[in-house]
Structures are given as structure tokens and as C-alpha cells.
Amino acid sequence: MGEGAWIRISDNRWRRLSRREFLRLAAAAGAGAAAAGLMPLLRPPRMAVAQARRLTFLHWSHFVPGFDKWFDGEYTKEWGKAHDVEVTVDHVPSAQVPARAAAEVAARQGHDLFQFITPAPNFEPALEDMGDLVEPMIKQHGIVDLARKSTYNPKTKKWFAFSLSFTPDPAHYRKDAWDEVGFVPDSWDNLLRGGRMLKARGLPIGIAISGCIDSNMALRDCLWSYGSSIQNQSAEVVINNKNTVEAIKYIRALFKEAMDPEVLAWDDSSNNRAMQGGKISWTLNAISIARTLEKTDPEFYPKVQLWKPPRGPNNLGGKRLGSEHVFFSYGIWQFTSPEQKKLAKQFLVDYGNNWARAFVGSEFYEFPSFPGTVSNLQDQVLHDTVAARLGQPNMYRELTTALSWSTNVGFPGFANAAEGEVFDTYIIPQMFALAATDKMTPEEAAKWAGEQVESIFAKWRGRGLV
Amino acid sequence: MEEGAIREPWRAVARHRLRGDRLLGPLMLAPAILYIVALVGFPLLLAIYLSFSNATTGSQTLNYVGLTNFARALDSTIFRAALTNTFVFTLVSEILVIVLGNVLALTLQQKFRGRPVVRFLILMPWAAPFALGAIGWKWMFDSLYSVVNWMLRAIHILGPHDFPQWLGVTKLAMAAIITVHVWRMLPFSAIVILAGLSAIPQEVLDAAAVDGASFPQRFWHILVPMLLPITTVAVLFGTVFTFTDLSLVYILTAGGPFNSTHVLSSWAFQVGIIAGDLAQGAAIALFLLPVLLVVAIGMLRTASRAEAGV
Amino acid sequence: MSRTFSKAIGRSGLYLSIAGFTFFAAFPFAWMAITVFKRILDLYNIHNNPFLFNLPPTMENIRLLFGETLFTRWLANTAFVGAFVVLITLLAAVPAGYSLARLARGWGQKFGIGIFLTYLVPPSLLFIPLARVVSALHLQDRFWALILVYPSFTIPFCTWLLMGFFKSVPAELEEAAMVDGCSRLGALRRIVLPISIAGLLTVVIFAFTLSIQEFVYALTFISPSAQKTVSVGVPTDLIRGDVYYWGALMAGALVATIPVAFLYSLFLDRFISGLTAGAFR
């Protein structure tokens, strides 16, 4: 082995090369650190205010961006000033609320007030009982049934969350087109009859049959108004029945005759875009479609109108039910310190009594869970300033009926943890999709769903939550 | 040996070092081992423990329930679809990544005008924060405004009324997932292979060329065997990354249409975290661990044997 | 190599391959760039040619991204986290890789495999137990949590990768240096590391990329806006339930990608030339 030669080679060549490389590397790392503005980053956040009282919120990014500005920058600042509390509101993407909640529970450390986006019964064991807040609110303002059924567990007799609001899920439809074909999309039957004609004109119906919230809600509406449901009032699984089969048959017909296959690919934003782009004649959605059009396309805006969710067939009871679109509720973790719990509850009481302001701040996107908190709701909705300015003062009129047809996931029972898992794993959209795409007959699809749901319910019963 | 040591002094030094090395070896290994034990080993044990319990995301009290979670997972049709998908997804995308990665590496090794620009563009997918890149693809596959479909129409691959729903039909959605995954993984595989390629001594290739070997001959008899170890690295990394990746399916299709494109990790996340059945999710996520272990050990052995052979 | 290979496949084949790969890699970014400057009515008009500006271009999306979100802060956080993760990864993986390649004889191989295998652990649930660790160290809601956690998935692969690179360095090189009076660590620093520069750069690129791309931990451990990374910050503010701010989202993706890709392509040049200049086998 000529070891000397090796050393010379490496000395002469490699060592020089290496320094250059490492300088480059160091320069890059340095540039990264410099870009990051080293100093402010090294300072731990929020340490300066150790003495003052603090209250922290976890909110998901509100669908109405203006609401976050109002809540973070205005309301909580005012409240904080009045009570000598420094308030911080952190945000996560709306789809990631459960993951964040799971992490906070696992860490046994988190925000003082945690805002959920769907009912949170599976977190019940980790959540504080809110009964002492809810009961007085009910006495003073009343409560809508869907809020009670989404925050109370009759089995454990516990109010595991405190809800101030929910979002109704009305229909958006192309009034111009529906008038031309001479139908009002007031019932599922009409939807199919008018939809056939409208599809021929290039304006199909748009109900997502896919793994998203819109689909979960719309298809439940259909199931319920056909006189079926996933569970009954006493949390027994009843979905595999002949009314479900009828509903599946209906959606299959609607899919084949009045919709485009694209609905199988939709997410929550797709029907908004399709309506804005003038591609569909009817969809169920929170008012974000109308509100977006106000900002982006005032000319097209008047053609899109709101209507109630469709009625079911008369021989099956002709029910009209619309699931809430978003359910707002606050939870307080049990591991939160007693002082913070007290402060958080104090905020909730004050906020609840001032909730009328949030109603305006959310641009009517949120509706009250305690109806008495907004005394002149009808009046306000009928005089929406933006709609009036665009010459459509009646735009949101149908919302005034929302309290009568809105209901909760889990209807006619409670929104329990098992219903939550059925919701989150999209069993209902899958059931409809399997039949609509002829992978199963309607009977098989209903049976399949029955098995899946039964297994999920059994699991959560075993945990004592259902 | 003794005499040899005297004739070759560095051996003696090496033996002298050996005693120090006995200490130095573990010492140098310690930081990595500690890190892994604390931040992977311990959480993994907890995850395994969870999979035998009835834990939920909202509950701290655990009861042992044996293999119930695994049995229940196997019962579910969605789980079985996810299991199949995981294999199909990994296998197809890995084959594509390796074949294309080799071609790309061979291409990038050539000299051509504008090479720096091309290399910059080709590295972009790997440099992009993937969550945002995937949102970009979601937009490209949009059900109404898919620019992919628009282009396919423009070059008359699609008729004027065809509009395939990339994320709405199981097979197309799987194709979309695989496409995006290959897009993301290709640059890194090509880099790794490029490194291997560069390490092949020019003399070997020149000698073969002088001997009159044709390109295919040189490709199969020199390039392929010499690239094997480094390609195994790329395959191993890619396989594991693909097997355990969650964000792609989660962002692109959310498992749709009708839960038919889930892979195990996305289904585990959906059930365990979003729906709150932590124990069930853990069972789903850990289901393939034994299989992965066997595959990985086999491949690692092959890789080290190939290395020793070169 | 260059001469013989290109003769075989031909120049046209080469250019076809270049064109194909470049299109595949870069088209999504081109489409993002177009989306950034489009007005929403232009974007949502199905009859338009999507590559043309049928309405005048707008800067609104850029303004939204830089003016209404903490985008620059997220970029800085991401770079900072990435740089730190790379540093920690190198500090742990270089000695470990070397130890496995050189110092550990029989058990080196087994340990190497063992370390690599930890990479197989599916991360979809690991954040639950890790959340506990993060909170015990009082790192919750600070990006230091990510700096702590990310090396857990970069170290295993990087150690294993470096072990391979170190093994390919002829042992005689170091031994000769040690005869000349170098300590083992000195030989590592002066001989082995410089020769393994390609491996080190691979590790740097790999660790940095993985830390940029990570999503689940960043999402669950960090909630204050000022502490977020790009991957999480951008969707938080620009996906509002059923409304996607496409233009601003795409702008965020592009702006975050370009400098990193540029940096990589600089390194890649050195990386390849460093290797081809002198094959080390």
C-alpha cells in the first residue's frame, strides 16, 4: 500500500475542496438564520406578561374572515380591557380541529377555551361539565333542540360543551333557471323533476356524494325527510330499513338523471365554485356562496337565491329537515387550572349575553343556540345592508325560518360519539355512492351501512359514552 | 501477523487504536441512539400499547382489550381496501420512481445547454412545501376547472365533451395520487442515483467501450450492477416514505371517492384522530409494521451484500 | 461516459427526455404562477382559455398573502427550523454513521439496521405520545418543539445513509493519516468528511426538505400564528372552510419553493462535480 501517495492526494485535493464546501454550507445556514431574524425568534413568546391574567382561545379559521378580525381584534380586546385580562386567540385550519384537540388532551396542556367545529362527544371524558353555565342561559334565553342534543349526553347527564351558535344549511338555487322550467325546488320530488330538465340545459343539481361535510349534511337531510335515520331516539341503530332504501333509490335516480358525475369528486369548496361559475342550478350550503358573490360578482348575485331544504315525499310524512352546517361549541379541558376555568366561564357568560353582536359580526353565518340572545333576529335578517345595497333586500329571508327546520347530526337522537365516528368516516355518503355508481343495489348498500354503523355503535357503547 | 505488523506500521497503530475505539464507537453512537429511543422508541411502545387498549382521543383511562382492535380493523371493508391500496400505491409509484429516476439521472449527467435552468426546474417539486404543492395539484385536478383536462382537450386526446373526474373515479384518483407522488419523489431519487452514477470510475466505462461493448451491454453489465446498491437506498427510502405517508392522500382525495383511495396511514388518521377512536387508529397504523420489518431487513441485507460485492 | 452514452441514445432522445421531465416537474408551478395573477371571475369562467388573462392581471392575491397574513414570518420560521434540524441531524448522524461504518464490527450492521428501522414507524399517530413529551419540556406552541421532534425522523435515515458513504471511503486513507499522527477524530475530520461531501450534502438536502414538508406535527404542536411554519400557516389563513383563496395559496407555494430550489441547484452542481472530479473507489 502506498500510503504516502494517498495522503498527498487527499491533502492536496480534498482538504481544499472541503473547506470551500463547508464555507458554502455554513453560509447557507447562516443566511437561513439571518433571514429568520435570529434575535426575535430566540425570545420566548408571551413571557413579558407573567403577572397579568391571561385567557387563551383556540379557534378554527372562521369561514367569514371578517369575523376573526372582529373577535380577535375587537371583542376580546374590549373584554380583556374591561376585566384586566390579556386575551390571545390562536387559529388552526377548520379541518384540523380534532387533531389539535387530541394533541392537547394527550399533552394535558392547552388553551383555556377550545372551539369545536362539530359536536365533540368523543372528547367528553376530558371536558369540564358546563351545566352550571347552560342551565341559567336556558332559563333566560331558551335553547334550540339541536344545540341541546349536540352538547348534552343523556347517558352521563353531562353538558360537555357550551354552544352559542350553529350555521344553518339552506339551499342555494338559480332562480332564473328554475322559473324557466316552471318548478320550485321545494321538495325532493320537484328537485328530481326540475333537475332533469335543467341538466338538459347544462345546469344540473349539485349535491356532493363524497367524503366532505356538505355531502354528509345534504345526504342526511334526504335520509331524514324520507322518514329514516341512522339511530332512533334511544340510540339504537335503525338505518337498515325500507325508507333508507327509498332514499338511496331517490339519490341514485337524481345522480343519474339530474347530476354530473363530478359530484363524486367534490370537496366542501366545489359546490361553491360550481354555483359561482354558473355550472349548477341547486345546492345545499351555508350562506357563504351568497356572501362570496356579493364581493366578487354583484351582477350574477341576484340570479342565486336561497330556499329551504327540500321536503320529503308526502307518503313518508313530508318532513322538511336540514342539518346544521357547522356547529360551534366551546369546551374547557378538565386539566385546566381552577382559576383559568373560572375566568373562561366568566368570559362565556359575558359573551353569551352579548352574543347578538357576534350574530352581526358573522354576517348571519352563525345563528343563536339560545334564541333569546338575538331579540330582533327576523328584523335584522330581513334588513341585511349588503343585500339591500345590491338591490336584493330579501336575499336572506328564508334564513328566518331556519330555526324551524334545522336539526342536529344524530337526529332524532343525540349527536353522540358513535354518530360522530359515522360522520367522520363518511359512511353515509359512501352508502349513497355505492348504490349511485351501481357497485351495490340500494338494499345491499343499506345493509352494508347497517353493519358498519352497528359496529361503530357497539364500540362506543362499550366505552360507556352511548 | 506480528511480523506483518512490524513491516506495516499502520496496522500496529490501528490495533493500538482499537482499544480506544471500543469506547469511542458507542460514544459516537450515543447521541443518535438516545434521540431515537426518546423520541421514537418510547412513543412507539406507547402506540403499540394503545393498539391493545380501548383508548379514545378524549380519554386518559385505558383498558386492555387484546386483539379486538385488529380483528375489528380486518372486518371493515374500508380497511381492506386501504390495505390493498397501500400495496398498489407503494409498488406502482416505487417502480415508476426508480425507472424514471434512473433515466432522469442519466439525462442530468449529460452536458447540454441550459442545464442549470433545467436542474433548477426539476428540483422544484422536491423543494416545495408538500402540503402546498398538493393543494396546487388539487386545483389542477379540480372537478370543474381542471387545467389538466383543458390541455388534454386542446391536444385532442380528450373529445370536446369528455371531462374525466380525476378525483371522482377510484382508478383515476389512484392514478392521480401516484402521479403526484412520483412528481414529488422523482427529484430526490434522481439525486441519489446521480451520486451513485458519478461514483462509477470513468476508467471502467472507458475500458468497456474500448473492448467494444455495445451500450446495452455496458448498461446491463456495468451500470446496473454498479447502480444497484445506491438504487436500493432510493427504493428503501421511497418505500418506507410511501408506506407511512399521510399527507398526500389526506390532502388530495381525503380517501375519496367513497373511501376507496385510503391508504393505511390516512385511514388510521381518519379513524384514530378525526373520529377519535385512538386505539383502533393505532391498530390500523401498526398493522403493517411486522411486514415492513421483514421487507426492510431483507432489502438492507441485499444492499449491504451488494455494497460488499462492489 | 457522457460521450458514449449520448452516442447511444442520440441527441434527440436526450432532448425529448429533458423536455418531458422538465414539463412534468415544472408545469404545476407554471400553472400556480398564472393562478396567482388571475382575477377570481377569470379563474372561475369555464369557457376561458386558462392560460390567458381574459381579465387584466391583479396583484390582489399577492397583497392578501403578504399584507393580511404573517407569510414572511412563516418563511423565516421555516428556514430557521430547517437550519436547526439540519444542524442537529449532522451532529448526531455523522458520528453515528462513522461509528457504525468503522468502529463497530459485528454489531455495527445490526445496529445500523435497527436505527434505520425506526424510520418505519408510521407518524400518523406518533404525535399523540410526542405531544406529551413536547409539553413536558414546555415547548408546546413554540416552533422549538418542531426543532426537537423533526430530527427523530431525519437522524435514522441520515445515519444509515452516511454509514454507507463512510464505508465507501477506503480505510487505508484514515489509517495512513493515523500513522502520521492524526487521532481518529482528526482523521474523520480531515480525511473522511471531505471525501464524503456528497453524502453530507445529500443529508443536508434531505433533512432540510423533510423539515419543510412536515405537516402533522407542525399542525398539532403549534397554534400561535407567529410560531407557524409555511406548510401550516398558509392553509390556516387561506382556506376558509368552503372558500379557497387559490391565488394567494399558489403564491405562497411558489414563493416558498423558489429560493429553496435555487439553493439546491447550486449545491447540486458542487455535489456532482465534486464526485465526478475524482472518483473515490
Automatic annotation (TrEMBL), chain A:
Entry's transmembrane regions: 22-42
Keywords: Membrane, Signal, Transmembrane, Transmembrane helix, Transport
A Pfam cross-reference name: SBP_bac_1
Xref: PROSITE patterns: TAT (PS51318)
The family this protein is said to belong to: Belongs to the bacterial solute-binding protein 1 family.
PANTHER family given in the database record: ABC TRANSPORTER PERIPLASMIC-BINDING PROTEIN YCJN-RELATED, ARABINOSE-BINDING PROTEIN-RELATED
Protein known as: Extracellular solute-binding protein
Lineage per the UniProt record: Bacteria, Bacillati, Candidatus Sysuimicrobiota, Candidatus Sysuimicrobiia, Candidatus Sysuimicrobiales
TrEMBL record, chain C:
Domain of life: Bacteria
Ranges annotated as spanning the membrane: 12-34, 74-99, 111-131, 143-166, 187-210, 243-267
CDD domains: TM_PBP2 (cd06261)
Subcellular location: Cell membrane
Keywords linked to the UniProt accession: Cell membrane, Membrane, Transmembrane, Transmembrane helix, Transport
Family label: Belongs to the binding-protein-dependent transport system permease family.
Protein name (database record): Carbohydrate ABC transporter permease
Higher taxonomy: Bacteria, Bacillati, Candidatus Sysuimicrobiota, Candidatus Sysuimicrobiia, Candidatus Sysuimicrobiales
